[in-house]
Amino acid sequence: MESLAAATFSPSRLAAHPAPPAAAAAGRSRAVAARGRRRSSSGLRCSSASATPVINGSAAAKAEEEDRRRFFEAAARGTGKGNLVPVWECIVSDHLTPVLAYRCLVPEDDMDTPSFLFESVEQGLEGTTNVGRYSMVGAHPVMEVVAKENKVTIMDHEKAEVTEKIMDDPMQVPRSIMEGWHPQEIDQLPEAFSGGWVGFFSYDTVRYVEKKKIPFSGAPHDDRNLPDVHLGLYDDVLVFDNVEKKVYVIHWVSVDRHASTEEAYKDGRSRLKRLLSKVHNANVPKLSPGFVKLHTRQFGTPLNKSTMTSDEYKGAVMQAKEHILAGNIFQIVLSQRFERRTYATPFEVYRALRIVNPSPYMAYVQARGCILVASSPEILTKVEKGKVINRPLAGTTRRGKTEHEDKLQEEQLLSDQKQCAEHIMLVDLGRNDVGKVCIPFVYSTF
């Protein structure tokens, strides 16, 4: 099982480290930290989805000069190594969807390129659904960090370098890479993830934290040989504003890697133009029809199995109960993996899942050796503006459609001893975990 994660460039907001492992059992999520502040759209210049905005004569020159001035002012606010400044265009999204945009960046036959698509849908009152305001798409990270137990591989695609290390805690690698970085906040960008680390942490990453109690040497047999950690550093991101029907096409420029600010600006605009060209009308690929009812008939040798038999699972339950009675453990999550062969591709599965099971946290992530498809109702943990938020769903229930129904739901929940006990346990675990990474005593429950 894996936990999805996303983190902005800002080291102070690095959410790519999952919540301490006790909380990691709660489920998979993406922790998206805000980048920038949101202004009225009246100050934004939007164009059609073309590589060159349709602006003529002096207006084009004026717009170009404004972009240049804005870039130079942001670059001047940061000095030295790690000065990151975004260049972007805001385009109209009336013909472009996040799913189609993903296909513009990653061809249908490419299931290896590290990439991601994040979407969100929440259930409203009386069965209505509310589409989340922002969707994010990215592909081709400039750097990757892959860890398998204590072996870490760092792939710098900009420098065409591969570095391998042996480390006690590979989860510190992203933080060390970002040390000293100074991403400039831009008011005109939306309050959404717009660049940084995206990837996954397996449940075995708990062994980096609890090295003595549960070392890798005591881990179950690894029959898939997947990484324990895979993170990609994305400096190109598309952010869809689903309310205003706009797409922010963003590229982050590392100013100090260039001889001058002028050179950095020109290189950034050139890269942004290439990114824009991929979603240009003329280059948008035809999206194959999606099917809610996928053809999942099996082929070859029938395969519809679990990693545990029914008797083995029952035996594990009995063992867990014995450990609980002996006081050895107070929480355990028994899990098993099901496998099935199918003609459906992972992206087809995602497209169907987003229809039949719309959720607040939907994700399609291509990583090294695997593809993750997720549709989760809850976050694992969230880091935003210096605050860490852990919000377990267990022991909660939906809100009522009326104040009377709301009160009934509350009374039923409070009278359910199991739900109350489970919620208290998870809140206590979350408080303990959050306390390990926060300022002592500066945390609260709500």
UniProtKB/TrEMBL annotation:
Residues in Anthranilate synthase component I N-terminal domain copies: 94-249
Pfam family, one: Chorismate_bind
Gene3D superfamilies registered for this protein in UniProt: Anthranilate synthase
Domain Chorismate-utilising enzyme C-terminal: 311-439
GO biological process, one term: L-tryptophan biosynthetic process
Region (Disordered) location: 1-50
Low complexity: bias regions: 10-34, 41-50
Protein name: Anthranilate synthase
Highest classification ranks of the organism: Eukaryota, Viridiplantae, Streptophyta, Embryophyta, Tracheophyta
